[in-house]
Structure formats: C-alpha cells, structure tokens
Amino acid sequence: MSIKLRLTAWYSGILAVMLLALSAAIYGFVYFNTYGDLKERLMRQAQQVGLKTDFDYTDGTLKQVLGGPAGQSLFAQLYIYDLDKLIPSQNMSEINLQFKVPAKADAAKQQGFSQANYGGNPFLIYQQAFDVGTSNGNYPAVLQVAVYTGEQLSLLNRLKNILLVGSFATLIAAFTFGLFLARKSMSPIGMVIEAANGIQTGNDLSSRIEYNGPPDEIGRLIETVNSMLGRMEGFYRELEDSYATQRRFVSDASHELRTPLTTIRGNIDLLQKVWEMDPDQSRMSEAEIRQLSIESVKDIADESKRMSRLVGDMLSLARADTGRTFDKEPVALEPLMTEVARRASFLPRQSEWSIGDLSQMNGKYIVGNKDYLQQMLFIFIDNAFKYTPSGEVTMDAVFYQNQVGIRIKDIGIGMDKDQVPHIFDRFYRADESRGMTEGIGLGLSIAKWIIDEHGGSVEVVTRQGEGTTFIIWLPLLFAPPLE
User: Fold this and answer.
1) What is the largest CA-CA distance in the chain?
2) 394 forms bridges with which residues in the sheet?
3) pLDDT tens-place string over residues 380-400
4) Which among 158, 218, 151, 149 has a CA at the least distance from the CA of 189?
5) Euclidean distance between CA atoms 459 and 220, whole angstroms
6) Of 27, 237, 322, 347, which sits most exposed with the smallest number of CB within 10 A?
7) What DSSP state is assigned to residue 72?
8) pLDDT of residue 473
9) What pTM value is reported for the model?
C-alpha cells in the first residue's frame, strides 16, 4: 500500500470514528431531551391522580379524577384490584384502548417507565401502584399514564437516518478529497523518485528537482535532495578529475621513468658484452674498455640520481594528494632568506646571482615550516637558473598590506602567456624547453602545493624571450607598520 493511500485510510478511519462519536452524541442528546420531557409530564399527571384519593371510583371515568381533559396524546387508566374495576380516561374509552394490567403481586415491582405497542402504535407508559380511598375503605390499585410517542420515534428515526447518511457521505467525500490532496502533496516525492531513478540509470548529476510549493517538510526535503545532488555532482567531478589526473600522472611517470631505465639497461648490457668479450678477440684496447666502462657507470649514476629525484618528487605529491600537511610554527623571514640566498649561490648556474636588500625583513614572521619553505624557494631559484643561460637572476622582497612577496626574477628565455596556466601542472614543460634543460616537470607542482599549504599565492609575469618573474605572496604573522 502506498504512503498516500495509507495516509488517506488513516485520515478516513479517524474521521469515521469522530463522526460516529459525534452522531451518537447528537442522537443521544435529542433522545434524552425528548423522552425526558415526556417522562416529566407523565410523572406530573400521575402525581395529580394520586393526590385525588377522596373520590368515589365506583362510577365515572378517570377524566373526573384528572380534573379536566387528558389531551389527545395523553392516556390514563386506573385499575382497582379488589374491586376488579378498570377506570380509563375518556379518550381511551372513545378509541377502545386498554393497557395491559400487571398482577397484583407485581404491581409494586413494575413501578416506573416502560414502552409498549398497542394496535401498532407506540406508547411510553408510566406505572405507579398506590391505595385508593373510597367510602368503603382503601383498596390497592395501579395507575398507568401513557403518552403516544409515534411523532418522537419518527423524529428520532429521521435524525438517525440523516446522521448515518450524512456521515457516510461525508466519509466518502473526505476519502475522495483526502486521496486527491494526498496525491497532490506527495507528487513532489514522485519527482524525487524520478530524479533518483534518473541518476541511478545514468550519469547526469546536473539535474535538479523543480519545486514551487511552500517551504514545508516536502520543500525542505527537496531542498536537501537538491543540495545532496549538488554535492554528489561536485564529488563526481572531483573524482573524475582525480582519475584523469591519476591516469595522466601514471602515464607521465611511466614516460619519465622509461628514459632513465632504458639508459641504465643499455649501459648495463654494453658493459656485460664488453666484460664478457675475449681480450684476444676484442678490437678495443684495455684503456678504451676502461674509458667506456667509466662513461657507462657515470651515465648509470646520473640516471639513478634522476630517478631518485623523480621518486622523491612523486612521494611529495602523493602526500599532497592524500591531504597530509606538515607542522607549522612562526618563522623569521630574514634568517630564512639569508640562508636560502647563501646556499643558492652554490647551485650550478651560468647566470649571475643577485640579492636585494633583505634588512627590511628584520622582525617579520610568517607561520609555516622552514624546511618546506626553503624547498619551495630553491625550486623557483633552480628553475630560474636553468632557463637563464646568460644574464642575471635576482631575489628580493616586497610588502603589501599584511603580506610579504618574495620576488625571484630572471631575464632568461621566458614563456608565452598561453603556457602560464599550465606551468604548475604535473610533468608539464614548455615545448621550447623539452630536451634543452634537465627536469621532469614536477618542481613547480610541489612548490604550488607548499604555497597553498601556507595560505599563500603565486603571481607570474613573463614574456617570450624577456624572462620570467615569480612573486610568492605569504601572509605575515606580524604586519609591517603603516607608512
């Protein structure tokens, strides 16, 4: 059974119970009020008859005893047991109506109200036993005062039919309209189900559920589902990007590893052939064999170092991909920059190395990791040295608001502006530089990760053939004083 049908059934069931209770209350109220008035009237008439104990009942009718006309719907009869005399009211004599008289022994026990039918007509009868005083003494008697209740029964039957038919019609109408409203109210749930089925059977996570209703529970549900779909779409896109990056990473890493492995394998095969060759059959002298062996071992050592750097860089990026971070603490800028400038002077280079004024960094701190900051700066400096075959590489610092900008500038080969958005991608190297400079294209990716972990940013200014300027912006712990 669907939810809307269950809701309608519960609503209709509760309404049916309430209508039944209300109908019973209305019917009971009308019934007790109608018969209460009749019973009070009968008891009053019986009391009036009972008070007239000094009449001679041996002749006449009960009309004399009642002291006036009994009315068209009020009937009475008095039965004296020892005299076996029945004295009816005048209207009973006219229509030849007689009520059943109880036995003398049961007269006192049957005192009260009862209902009976005579000639197909309903009556409400009040019966009372008492002694009648005559000139010859007192005699036990029973008085029966009745009223015709046909009109009351007809009224109550019509009321009962009205309540039953009205309740049944109301219940049917409530069930019909309740089912209609339940379907209309639950229709957004159907939209949610259709959207979920569409996502289940396809890959389109951009679909959203349109809802123009009030911000009720269903509206909040649809808003939550749309928000969940948005997050799922974001997660799915990130997952696709991650898979694409992983595939590209594996492809590029395989390509980069294939070259040194091929070189190492070729040199090892060459050395194996040379060393296994019979000296008498060899066309090479011992000195030539020795020189060839030294060159092969040097090539193997160089390629091994290159593989070691590649594996180390890949491990750094793997830690970045897993979300791992590093400990941070306040780091003084002047000692850090002085140490980096000193050690950078020993890097292999063909250009001049120039240091700007570092005294302005005195007393300035940033929150970070000293080792990773040095690694990041050495990546940019080494990159500037590699792409500046002649000229000058400079490093200085600038301040803007609460940030410090470490500027590393070269006048090397530069880059085209279309290449700038890709220089921080893994294994990316400008086409002009491939084969001309050493490197595997992971350094700037690692540097960008370190900058991001420190809450900084990097600015690139470059032009083909005119050099490149990197400005690494990092937030200061102690901002410089305003000038």
Assistant:
1) 178
2) 354, 409
3) 998 888 888 888 999 999 998
4) 218
5) 43
6) 322
7) S
8) 94
9) 0.45
